[in-house]
Amino acid sequence: MKKHLTTTALAALASMGLAQMAHADIKIGASISATGPAAFLGDPEAKTLEMLVEDINAKGGVNGEKIELVSYDDGGDPNKARTFATRLVEDDEVVAIIGGTTTGTTMSILDVAEDAEIPFISLAGAIDIIDPVKPYTFKTPHTDRMACQKIFEDMKKRGITKIGMISGTDGFGASMQAQCKKVVGDYGIEIVADETYDPKDADMTAQLTKIKGTEGVQAILNPGFGQGPSIVTRNYKQLAIDLPFYQSHGVASDGFIELAGADAAEGVRLPGNALLIPDLLADGDVQKPVVTAYKTEFEAKTGTPVGTFGGYAHDAFLIMTDAIKRAGSAEPKAIRDAIEATSGLAGATGVYTMTPENHLGLDLSAFRMLEIKGGKWTLVE
Amino acid sequence: MRLSVKSATLLTLLAFVVVAPLFFPSSFYYRVGALIFVNGLAVTGMVILTGWAGQISLGHAGFAGIGAYACALAPEHLGLHPALAVLLGAVISAVLAWLVGRPILRLKGYYLGVASLGFGILVSMVLNNERDLTRGPDGIDVADLGLRGLLKDAGLDLSNGQFWYFFCGFSLMLGAWFALNIFNSPTGRALRALHGSEIAARTVGIDVPRLKLQAFVISAVYASVAGSLLALQNKFITPDVAGFMHSVEMVTMAVLGGVSSVIGAIFGAAVLTLLPQVLTVFAEYEQLVLGLIMVLVMIFLREGVVPSFLRKFRGNEA
């Protein structure tokens, strides 16, 4: 019995060893949730990275060296993400890691990357990732706090002072709900109704009816992503609620309009990024060439519409390669220092300027307030 | 001289824990090993409950969740040392298992599975929704166990991966030793008797509900400690640990390797932990391969991989 078990185990270990990749010039690792519950975020991210690596290698690589991407699918499981991060660091010996589709997987990778002193760019939203600042961790998506601020700014302009909130109980919705509550006071706005729904719920009319019946409510905000916000939007229309309706950046994609229906989504406002509206950008906008190129290529290669989340991966790769170029070296420490010195780099999500105190590098201008009109995105001036 | 099942199992485990690192191509494999041992520990509990007592639980991840979150919350809120938090988690799990198990274990067959499933989902929902305490689905940091630092001061400097590999390895051996002691005790014989036939067991004077409850409580403690070890090792935990899929995974591991044999179940844990690592290139097919393996095992090796092969090697005596 002993012999049997040991041989099997050795065979298994040997086959894992064989799976190791051949040595390449610059190895960048990725752990992304391309399958599992977060697949609709991770899938475009994985495809984007693949596409960009191909592109850059076709153009001769970075500093004359080719890039090799070692990409794993963590299925959205933080435990798996930690294992893959360990594998990237110890076994594949990558010089940098991109990934962490969700906040949970990011927190797992973060710990491994910081321990090994390997630069890590996360693709997840929560502010905890970069606040407090950790030396080797950066991220590309704007935080949910910034989304709240952008929305409240717009509400304030419209003279709204009392709002109702209906939030998903998933990680995204819960985190944004908490952040919005933290900053809402700065804009002289009061939350008079605060409801939640489970991301798997099929109907939110009960919560919306309650908010509708709350005295003095002037607008409704729905932090959440996935199918929940589409259902909320449909219910909103069915209940004929005649108040300004705000969604979050979590649903900033054409898929949302499709799912909710152009009719129900009419008049919905949300903070989105330049990627959704390349044609509406002014000609002098530094982001225009970047988003146009990315959108055209991604849509031609994958046949699916480009979305906010793929854009996060695009920017992470852009920041990484830009840093390697400027560092002139593929040493993890040198890359880290160069990432931190990123300045005025136009990506799909916004223009990045990192500092030792700011490992996100975006400000509120990265968000553009969008409104859906006739099934299309329009810019709110 | 033939070794008893107990010594053979423990010796195999010891040999594996000590010898395997000699063949590790990189220190990443310590991490995989540690995960195998943690899963093996949880699955050893399933052997007692499912393999010996014949009861099915689809909610054991709930206990793993309790163990894990005890390690996350107790040091922060109660000021307990993480090691004591493991104990606290185990005690809470045991008490809950006792309370929940009393009515549940009067149910039979599918109903038991469904009731335990409900319990698991309940724990998972609490962890997800009690955001003020658990910080919700984004997860929570877990304090450092501190034992590695102590070993370092004592002159034994292990890397993080190495430490958790050996720590989990020896925890698993301890767990296996305890389980095998039960197996050979009157309790173990009574458990197997009630698995064979509850009516027959009752006629020979076995207190069936009490024994089932005992098995349920013990297996809950195994799951809880495994959850704690996972949390301490990862230094971060999310409610996924209590999720339904994790419960199913535990049952699958045990059934695949052989639910009535401790070493078999641990083998099952090893296979299912290694599978995603071996199949990274075909990540999309992981579920397919897993399903295929399960179907083949259920058709051709109905007792699970290890017991079936042992029987082949030894003839009928095992």
Key structural traits:
heterodimer; A: 381 residues; alpha/beta; Rossmann fold; five-stranded parallel beta sheet; four-stranded parallel beta sheet; B: 318 residues; mainly alpha; ABC transporter involved in vitamin B12 uptake, BtuC; 2 strands; 1% strand
Describe it.
The complex is a heterodimer of chains A (381) and B (318). In chain A, helix 6 links the parallel strand 6 and strand 7. About 3% of the residues of chain A have low confidence. In chain A, the strands form four sheets. A five-stranded parallel beta sheet of chain A has the order 2-1-3-4-5, with helices on both faces. Chain A has a four-stranded parallel beta sheet with strand order 7-6-8-9, sandwiched between helices. With 381 residues, chain A is α/β, with parallel strands linked by helices. Chain A starts with a helix and ends with a strand. Chain A folds into two domains: 213 residues, Rossmann fold; 129 residues, Response regulator (Rossmann fold). Chain A contains 13 helices and 14 strands. With 318 residues, chain B is mostly helical. Chain B has a single domain, classed as Orthogonal Bundle (ABC transporter involved in vitamin B12 uptake, BtuC). Helices cover 75% and strands 1% of the residues of chain B. Chain B has 15 helices and two strands. In chain B, strands 1-2 form a two-stranded antiparallel sheet. In chain B, helix 2 packs across helix 12, helix 3 crosses helix 11 and helix 9 packs across helix 11. The longest helix of chain B has 27 residues. The relative contact order of chain B is 0.18. The mean pLDDT of chain B is 86. The chains are: A alpha/beta (381), B mainly alpha (318). Chains A and B meet through helix 1, helix 3, helix 4 and helix 6 of A and helix 1, helix 2, strand 2, helix 13 and helix 15 of B.
